[in-house]
Structures are given as structure tokens and as C-alpha cells.
Amino acid sequence: MIPQGFTFSATNAGVKSTENKGLDLGLIFCDRPAAVAGVFTTNRIKAAPVLIGMDIVKTGRARGIITNSGNANACTGNKGIEDAKAINRAAAAGLGVGGDEIIPLSTGVIGVHMPVKRILDKLEQLRAGLGDDVGAFARSIMTTDTVPKVVSRQAGKARVLGIAKGAGMIAPDMATTLAVVMTDARVESQVLDNIIKKAIKHTFNAITIDGDTSTNDTLIALASGYVDENIDEIDQAITEVIHELALMIIRDGEGATKFVKIEVKGAGTEDDARTVAMCIANSLLVKTALFGCDPNWGRIIAAIGYSGVQIQPEQIDIMISGYHVVGSGSEAQGFNEDTLHELLKEKEISIDVSLGDGPGKFCAYTTDLSYKYVEINSEYRT
Amino acid sequence: MIPQGFTFSATNAGVKSTENKGLDLGLIFCDRPAAVAGVFTTNRIKAAPVLIGMDIVKTGRARGIITNSGNANACTGNKGIEDAKAINRAAAAGLGVGGDEIIPLSTGVIGVHMPVKRILDKLEQLRAGLGDDVGAFARSIMTTDTVPKVVSRQAGKARVLGIAKGAGMIAPDMATTLAVVMTDARVESQVLDNIIKKAIKHTFNAITIDGDTSTNDTLIALASGYVDENIDEIDQAITEVIHELALMIIRDGEGATKFVKIEVKGAGTEDDARTVAMCIANSLLVKTALFGCDPNWGRIIAAIGYSGVQIQPEQIDIMISGYHVVGSGSEAQGFNEDTLHELLKEKEISIDVSLGDGPGKFCAYTTDLSYKYVEINSEYRT
Questions:
Q1: What is the ipTM of this complex?
Q2: Residue B365 half-sphere exposure, CB side, CA atoms within 13 Å?
Q3: Smallest Cβ distance to B371: which of A173, A326, A374?
Q4: ∠ at Cα B279 (B273, B282), nearest 5°?
Q5: Which residues of A touch B374 (CB under 8 A)?
Q6: Which of A130, A187, A236, A343 is spaced 20 to 30 A from B255 at the CA atom?
Q7: Do A369 and B374 touch (CB under 8 A)?
Q8: CB A285 to CB B210 under 8 A?
Q9: Domain A6-251, CATH
Q10: Could you give the CA distance from residue B162 to residue A376 in angstroms, rounded to a whole number?
Q11: What is the Cα–Cα distance from A217 to A206, expressed in whole angstroms?
């Protein structure tokens, strides 16, 4: 299922820690110039690799991606830029391409300088290892992820492959954390750009684990152009791959015990529906209630109320996992707390909110908030 | 320290639960018409007592306050309004005043109808108990609070007394949760209104525990007018009382192990400084790192970056508890992780952020996020 032209490699370079033997350095190479598009974090503090990647994407062409986990190379000043460029130049030289054709992606701790020498020492091994081991590459970009995230689709004669990482610092504002989507279809970079920008709106920008947007979020799409295929098929396959990757991130949310789909309809506009859905998705009180299977629907309606969206309280209708909980802004007739408590024990929960009869709707995805989330994120230097 | 004219009472009416013997019904009475002002939740879902209280405050005069904990009387429709008015009428009749002179304040579970009969049955006992037991009244409005919150100040010849509740569902948007401030000074209701609206900006609207704004938030100020005193002294005393109550709520934050003061300066405007301070204060990653004494300052700078405020990353300077952590957007020279780790073990933490040389500054207060917060809020029907 690997799109034609792409090869993968991963190794350990001691970026996560000098003792850690896990994979933390990765490479994707395309044997010909690929059309490229990307979306980047809207965080105003942008990591060095994000700044460099934005420049490369503007050219519309790239040959590959070099990744590391364990160090975000963010808030590292000019030295951070120089470090990333030095790694790029060395990696590119070994591949016979230009340093400005390799996009750097980094994830990990903020504010620490890159262990440049340790990385340079492993570049030859990394290059020599290029092959079809997508799984090893996917593992090399993981941080607190518990599973690698790889999705593929056939689109007529063409193939689409997506790889992502992410489990925490997940909030929707442009692409969330690192993702790479490849296809061997012939797609102009501008068309590719349109496809991914449209796709992220209801995928990566519709998920939240903890409301924190990273300094390194990047989604890169590459098209090697070996195959001519109907663009609508490619569009659909890429969108599906991105959607599936976004849901995999939620399912792997730090400490999450539940996958929660929040569908808001009947709002004045799609933006209003999104604001309400995200307000529910980010409410600590809703998330802790879900963790405890507490049938406390008042927390959902309170979150709707403080979203800032103009609503008519008496028009609010809420279903949880298909069970009618709120009708006309008050407890639904026949509502039984124990019934809802039982439904909330399921691993997958749906919350359907109707705000009235407006045309605006939006679907967001989130997790519950557990002890484990606190444990993972309170550990001394995670 | 009780302002002249005010008496207090509290009893158990089985509102929290029929088995619970704790105080859950409270009354404050003023022996003459008091000037009144109030600020109310900006949540668009407003509880029945909030809607009634807003109307009474508009008249500028009130005789007292009837409170209950255990039931928010929110999302209870017209019946909720009727229930609150029935309780008001009965309480007022026993006191020889009008039902529209008693302000109802409720806090507790959303969406459940009030146990009206149980409350009516206790009104005579409540009225008969009116006296100087401020502590009992303060305990009767507690929910997850672990300590009653009472503050008093002498302002020349006049006295100011404040009582509040709150430990969770605390986010800054008008007054947060229930608070009553009383004085025996002669203050016109419009002046009182100006004083509290100015005071809450940097007090109740500058605190956050979990980012959730309640449907019932109310702050009521009453002035019995027995004493003529300089209005500036009264203003200062009321502001100090409100400030102290706000900080008591943060110190009693659900599961909190730390009290965190976040001071942002050098922003373009005060609003920008507030947005940045609140973004840090509400970041789950910052709050869990503080709980774990993790010297991960990258999470603070990431929160500054996603606040949406126009900032120059290279101008950011951060001190934590007086220790220089970030200079010019990167790790400060000589920064030592272990030193910061030790400082973070203290119970009181200060985070000072400078964004540049703009005039905007704001000070916010928050807590860390602990296992205990998750425990308290995931319990089945808290």
C-alpha cells in the first residue's frame, strides 16, 4: 500500500535521551521531486522546523522529510534554525538533493537545543536503511502515543498513505501535531493545498484532547506524480486518510478511556455550531463527568451557555448515546439517571445537541479526562 | 464586625439530600430597606434565581437574601421560576416584607426541581434563628468548598462584610459563583453598582480553577445606610473584601495543591495581557506540570503563543517564583532545571511574563490540576 516513489527509514539517535534505545529519528524520501503542500500550527510561537518547512512548502516542491521525536526545537532562537538547517544539509547531501528540498519535522520538549552531532552521526545509517518499513518510521515519531498511526487508501490506480503522531497537546487550530500524507497520484501543489485545507476543517481541526495547541503542529502532503487518476477520487481518499488519522489521535488520547463524538446542529452558522461543540469538548467538568460515568447533563448545558454563542435556552435538545436527556432546555420527560449512567459506561459516547432550527452544524471529537492524563502530564519532565 | 442592620440564619432543609444533616438553607435579613447592586453570570443559560435576582436588583432596593446549596434551580423551566417565587413569598411573609424584596441565590446540581415543601417547612425555624452567626450562614452555602469564606474590613466608622462560596466550576466572567457583600454605610445603589463592577474586573473576573462558568454565578452587594462615611474608604474596603474572597476561592480550588499568581505585563493593551494570563491559567498542560513540579516552561510559552494575541516571540521574558526562566524567547542564561524544580515544590507560585514594552498588564490567579480534581468531579453525581 506504499505509494510509488516513497521509501522510509528510522533509527535511534539518542534524541529522546542518551539512554533511550527507541526509534527517534526518521526519514521519508521521494525518488523524484514531489508536489508538496502543508498546514502549520497557528501558535504564534513557531518551532524552527515549522519556520523552515513553511518556506519549503511555498516552493511547491520537496524530496523528503526528516523527523525526530524527543526534541521540539522550539524557542531555540537562531541556533535552532541553524541546527535544523545543518541536519537538513547533511541529510540532503547523502541523498544527492538540496538541503532546501528536505522538510524537517520535530516533536518533543520545548526550549532545549538539538543534539546535532548525535543526529549527524546517524544520517548515513538512516539513508542506508531506506525501504518499505512504514511501521518503523511511524514509531519513530511517537512521543506519548501508545500506538503508531498509519492509514492507507486505494484511489483508483493511485495510492494514498498517511502517518501521524499525537496523544496530548491536542487542540484544533490548523493541523494538530505531526502528520504526513503521501500519494503517487499526479496532483499540482496548489490542488494538494486546497484538498488538505478543506480536509482539516472537519478532521484535525475538529479534535481536542486538552485544548493545548503545540508550537510544532504540521501536516505535510506529498504527491510523487507517478499515476494519473481522477482528482475527485484522490481528494476523497486523502480526506478519508486525514479523517482517520485525526480519529486515531483521539482514540490514543493521553489517559483517555472514552472516545466522544459531539454533534451540534440547528445553530445559526457552522462557526456557532463549532464554538458550542468545542466548548463542550474542552469542558473539564464534562470530561471528568464522562470519565466517572456521571449522568450530570447540567455540565453540558452549562458549557453550551458559556460558549458565547447566541442561543435560546428553551430550544436546547440533547441526546446522549441515543438517549433523550434534555428537551426544550429542561430534563426530558421520562429521563432516568440510572439509564444514562449505564450508557456512559460504554467506551464510545455520542452527544447530540440541537440548538434550534438554524442551518449550522459541526461534529467534534474529544476524550474524557482521567487520573492517567494527570499522571502522564505531571511527571517530572515528560 | 457585622455591619449594622444585618442578621443571619442557617438550617438544614434536606436540599443536598434527604439524609444529609448539613446546613443547606440560609437567610440574610436587613432590618430596613438596603441599597442593592449585583453582577450575574454571563452564561446564557441562567438559573431561575438569577433571573429573579436580576429583576430585584434593577429596583435598587432589597431586604434580604435567601440561599440554598445542593440544588441550582437551573434548567428547570417555568416551574423553576414558580418554585423560587413561592419560597420567596413565604419567606418574605414571615419577615413582614414583600416577596420581591428577597433575592434568591441557589447553587448545586443543575436540572433538578427544588424540594419546595421541605424548604417551606423550615422557613419559620430559619426566621426565628436570625442573629449574628455569620459562620453558620457561610457554611450553609458551601458545596465542594472545604472552608467557609468570610472577610471583613473596617472603613472608618463603617463596616464591610463579605461571604462567598466556590471551589469548582470557577471561571472568570462576571462574578463567579455566590457572594454577598454587606455594609452599613450609606451608599446609593448606583454607586454600589459602580464599585462592585470595577472591583470584580481584577478579582472575581481574574480567577479560574477549571475554565467552567456556572449558570448561577451571582455577587450581591447590600448597603443598610446606617453610617455616613467617605465613599472612597467604602469603595476601597469593598474592593479589598471582594479581592480577598476571590483569592479564598482559588486557595480552596477543588483538589488544588498550589496557589498560582500569573502577572503579565508589557502587552499592547490590558485586554491582551488578560487573554495571555488566562490562557496560561487555563492550560491543562501548565496546570498538570505545576502539580508535578515539572520545570517544563515550554508549556507556558506554548500557551502564550496560542492565546491569539499578537506577540513578538523574541521579546518574551518569563520569571517563575523570582527565577529567570526565559529571556528573549529562549531559555535564560544560566537556567538550571533542578533549581526550578525545587522552587515549584512551594505551595505559592508566581509566574511573571513580560511580552515587551507595551502598557498592558493583568494579574490572574489559578490553581494546579491534581488527581483529586479528577476524583471530585468524576464521582457519580457530585
A1: 0.74
A2: 23
A3: A374
A4: 135
A5: 288, 291, 369-371, 373-374
A6: A343
A7: yes
A8: yes
A9: 3.60.70.12
A10: 40
A11: 14
Q: In the structure grid, which three cell numbers stand for residue B337, read together?
A: 532545571
Catalytic site residue A7? no
Say which amino acid occupies B180.
V
- CATH homologous superfamily of A259-378: ArgJ beta chain, C-terminal domain (3.10.20.340)
Whether residue B45 contacts residue A304, with contact meaning beta carbons closer than 8 Å, is answered with: yes
Say if residue B116 is exposed, middle or buried (CB neighbours under 10 Å; 0-12, 13-18, 19+). middle
Number of residues in chain B: 382
Among B338, B375, B281, B298, which residue's Cα sits nearest to residue A143? B298
For the beta carbon of residue B70, count every other beta carbon within 10 angstroms: 21
CB pairs under 8 A between A and B: 224
**B291: nearest CB among A110, A297, A374:** A374
Nearest chain A residue to B307 by CA distance is A43
Contact of B70 with B103, CB cutoff 8 Å: no
Rounded Cα–Cα distance for residues B248 and B235 (Å):
20
- List B27's β-bridge partners, or say none: B9, B66
Query: Length of chain A, please?
Result: 382
Domain ranges in chain A are 6-251, 259-378
Residues of chain A contacting B210 with CB distance shorter than 8 Å: 284-285
Distance CA(B174)–CA(B44), nearest Å, equals 12
CB-based burial of residue B359 (10 Å sphere; 0-12 exposed, 13-18 middle, 19+ buried)? exposed
- CA atoms of A181 and A64, how far apart (whole Å): 12
* The three three-digit cell numbers of residue B104, written as one number: 434568591
Q: What share of chain B is helix, strand, coil (3-state, %, to 5)?
A: 35, 30, 35
H-type alpha helices, chain B:
48-59, 77-95, 116-128, 134-140, 189-201, 231-251, 270-282, 284-291, 298-306, 337-343, 371-378
Interface contact flag, A294 B382, Cβ < 8 Å = yes
Number of Cβ within 10 Å of residue B228's Cβ equals 11
Contact list, A299 vs chain B (CB under 8 Å): 110, 212
